[in-house]
Specification:
single chain, 332 residues, alpha+beta, 11 helices, 11% strand
Length: 332
């Protein structure tokens, strides 16, 4: 390693207030060794506008490198679809392999049974038909051990496949940026809740002047704003489902409560976000006010999601027209 690269790594760690440990050092080495690579581009996007890199950023980007994906993979729906298709193909191959293993073990078992029958017949036949019992027992024991080993290996593969499928099912319904449920998961949850007959309220929220944040500070800062609002909604709404519905829009499915309770809960999250003062990590410059507006509407029996979301959307824009940083609800 050249002295120049060594010094550059030290400067990078110091500038981002990162500890000098093996993980951080190796990560920065990868970034600086390939300044035009995808990892360096992802770091440049995150740190756009003077934002410092965090240990969480390094963990997430490092995981992407370790798994052979590009940083940010999963954000694009087409990437997620391709990953799912690859998993399905891999699953099919593993299932076929498992079936072959089971078939081989069954064949081995049949052979084992035939050998036992031959042994028993030989012993019944007397000395003139005697066989080497020790050799036969040793051969059958080897077959049993081999079959057990193949079965254990097949079980391990099945367990690994089960875990991978579970992860894939979760990822297919999760927003990769915020960790919230995605639109598909929200729509499925609505269908299940509406069929159960419990009271439902639907809220639609939108970050106020979000384009201005992206234009002034870059998309990396905008992503951090979305994460902050996602966290506030998750904390305030508790057991109710919070989803990133698209872009800077969030949706909340309130079950088992009236519209006033749902609106008051959402207002708690709104107030928590508006009360904070956000600054860039590197320059300590203020971001300005970060707020969101929302509309909350009660679901009527037999009503479609599109219908109740349409009302919530109109209430949302009434909040925007009313000065933003507001929650509007259905009239009592």
């Amino acid at each position: 390693m050249s002295d120049r690269l060594y010094a550059a790594i030290g400067d990078f760690l110091f500038a981002h207030r990162l500890s000098v440990d093996p993980v951080n050092y190796a990560f920065v080495h990868r970034v600086l060794s390939a300044p035009t690579g995808p990892l360096a581009a992802a770091v440049a996007q995150i740190t756009d506008g003077g934002v410092r890199l965090t240990s969480r950023d390094i963990e997430e980007l490092g995981s992407a490198v370790a798994t052979g994906t590009s940083p940010g993979d999963g954000v694009d729906a087409s990437n997620a679809e391709e990953a799912m298709q690859a998993l399905v193909a891999r699953t099919q191959m593993q299932v076929e392999g498992f079936a072959d293993t089971v078939a081989a073990i069954r064949a081995e078992t049949r052979g084992f049974g035939r050998d036992l029958e031959a042994s028993a017949a030989a012993m019944r036949g007397g000395a003139e038909q005697a066989i080497d019992i020790t050799r036969l027992a040793s051969t059958m024991l080897d077959r049993v051990r081999a079959a057990e080993a193949r079965m254990a290996s097949a079980n391990e593969e099945a367990d690994a496949l089960r875990r991978e499928l579970e992860t894939a099912r979760h990822d297919a319904k999760a927003d990769p940026l915020t960790g919230l449920a995605n639109r598909r998961a929200f729509e499925e949850a609505f269908e299940a809740a509406s069929g159960a007959g419990a009271p439902i309220c639907v809220a639609l929220c939108d970050v106020d002047r979000f384009k201005s944040v992206n234009d002034r500070f870059g998309h990396a800062v905008g992503d951090r704003v979305l994460k902050v609002i996602a966290g506030a909604l998750r904390e305030a709404c508790g057991e109710h489902l919070v989803a990133r519905y698209g872009g800077e829009e969030f949706a909340v499915l309130f079950t088992g409560c009236a519209v006033d309770v749902a609106a008051d809960t959402l207002d708690t999250a709104r107030d928590a976000v508006a009360a904070k003062r956000y600054r860039l990590r590197e320059t300590d410059a203020p971001l300005g006010a970060v707020t969101f507006s929302g509309g909350v509407s009660a679901h009527n029996d037999g009503e479609s999601l599109g219908s109740v979301m349409g009302r919530a959307d109109r209430l949302l824009y009434r909040a925007k027209d009313g000065g933003r940083n507001l929650i509007e609800r259905d009239a009592a």
